[in-house]
Each structure stands twice: as C-alpha cells, then as structure tokens.
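Board notes (copied after class):
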Amino acid sequence: MPTLLDDFPVLTPVTDEDFAIAVQAVRTHAPESWPQGELCRSERVPYPCRLARWGRATLEAAGLSAAQVEQGGWA
C-alpha cells in the first residue's frame, strides 16, 4: 500500500502535456532559504518536495540532463 511519502510515478514516454506540467512544477516548487534550511517555496516543506522531485524526474525522462533542468534548459 503506498504511503503519503511515495513519489509520484513518472510516466514514459513523456507527453507534451506532462512536460509542460513538469516545467510548471519545477518553477513553482523551487528551493527557498529559511532559518530551518531549504524549504519548498510553494509548500514550505523540506526541499525537494514531491512535486519538485516528480517535475525534475519527468524532465530528465524527457531527455534533459540534470544540469539542463537546473539551468532551466527547457526554454
């Protein structure tokens, strides 16, 4: 039985719609410095949150490298 901490599945092949949603997830769920450490800007939970992890994994499954995802290489 899945728990709430499981990551969202990355479906392959990555569709254009999944790609667009992943880009939005990576932009929205970005790290932000707080006295407690790096937190998700959107959810205020430890970064990376589930949506940030899913977005990055989906973009990498679409063929982007980790460096391209970090630099916003989807544009």
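Comment from the instructor: The longest helix spans residues 16-28. The two ends are 38 Å apart (CA to CA).
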